[in-house]
Sequence to fold (280 residues):
Amino acid sequence: MELFKTIKEIREYLKAKKDEDLTIGFVPTMGALHEGHLSLFREAKEENDIVVGSIFVNPTQFNNQDDLARYPRTFEEDIKKLEEEGCAAVFHPSAEEMYPVPDTTKFDFGNLDKVLEGEHRPGHFNGVASVVKKLFEIVKPDRSYFGLKDFQQLLIIHKMIKDFNLPVELVPCPIVREKNGLAMSSRNELLTKAERKQASLIYKTLKFVKVQSGFQPIHELKNYVNREFKRKNMKLEYFEIVDMYTLEPLTTWIGSKTVIACIAVYVGNVRLIDNIILFS
Fold:
C-alpha cells in the first residue's frame, strides 16, 4: 500500500493508474477507522480496479474547536487496517497541504444545510463540501463511497456533485451497527462502557418509531421520543421526521412517500447522530 502526503505525489500516482484504464474507488475519511469505514472499502474494492482512501481531520467542518481537538486520531492502527483490506493508496495530507491559503469557498445548498445538523452546527456542511470537492479534484475517482449514517451529508455531497457537474458516482452504503444497535462512529471511542450501553436507547427508539410510523400521529411520536430521553437523563438535541430528499419536517403521514427519522443525542459529552428510513 502506498502512502502519499502531497497532492503532487498522489496525482502522479493516480494519473499512471488512469493511463492503464483502471477504475478508482475512493473512500474519504477522517481516520479513527471502524467496521463501518471498512465496509465502505470492501464495497469499493468489489466495484473498482483499485481503492484509494484519505485520512484527513478537516478543520473547516468543525464549528467547535474543542470537538476538533477531541476527535480521535489513530493513524498507525488505521494504516494497518487499510493494508489488510487491500487498499492501494492512502492520501494523508496536512492542513497546510490542503489549505495553503484560508478557504473562503461558499456553497449554496438551499435549505439542505439549514436544518437538522446544519441548524446546530453552522458552517459544518460548507466545510464538508469544500474538502470533499478538493479531494474529488485531486483523486478524480470513478466512484466514491459514503455511509448512510450521515444521511444529510450524502444529500449535500450529491447536490455539490450535480451543481459542479463532477464526474464521480456517489455510492451510499448501509449503516453498520454494534451488537447493541449503536451506529458505528469514530466518536463511539470516546464513550465509557456505561455510556455505550446507555447509547443503545438511540436505535431502540428509532426502531419503535419505524414500527409506529403511519399509525401514531407524528407529534405524538416526537413527544414520546422526547420523554424517553428525558427519562434517561440524556440530552436530545433534535428528533425530526422529514422528507428524505428535501429534509422538510413533516406534520402528517398523508401524502408522505419518502420519509426518514433523524436524531442527535448527547451521551455524556459525546454527540451521536443516527437515522432510520421510515418509507422509501
Q: What stands out?
A: The beta strands are 2-4, 24-29, 50-55, 89-91, 143-147, 169-173, 235-243, 259-267, 270-279. The radius of gyration is 19 Å. The domain at 186-274 is CATH 3.30.1300.10 (Pantoate--beta-alanine Ligase; Chain: A,domain 2). DSSP finds eleven helices and nine strands in the chain.
